[in-house]
Give the backbone structure.
Amino acid sequence: MTDRSLSALAALCMLVGVAAGAFGAHGLKGRIDAEMLGVWQTGVQYHLVHALGLFAVAWLRARHPQARLLPAAGWLMFAGIVLFSGSLYVLALTGIRWFGAVTPLGGLAFLLAWAMTAWAAWRAPR
């Protein structure tokens, strides 16, 4: 994945994250209980933070195109957004509790993405 495609994916994730935040604040208020609204907000928070993380990966990729771990880190960060935030969105909307079992897989994807990003940054030439 190139720095250009990582940047585009990050921007799209930010767009969806902002839309999800607005939907939660305006469309879900009064329609779901406070606990599920909190679940939704957690999903949005991690969504937006990791979309910014995708921009960081894109920036590193542009500076260090030889860093082979960065494309994989980008995909893992995107997978984390889909799995972690997506499962929380579905849980908040449906109340189906087993979707919560998917959330840790997204968290693991985030952890692996950040570890790979750190390793790639550490190993990058000066």
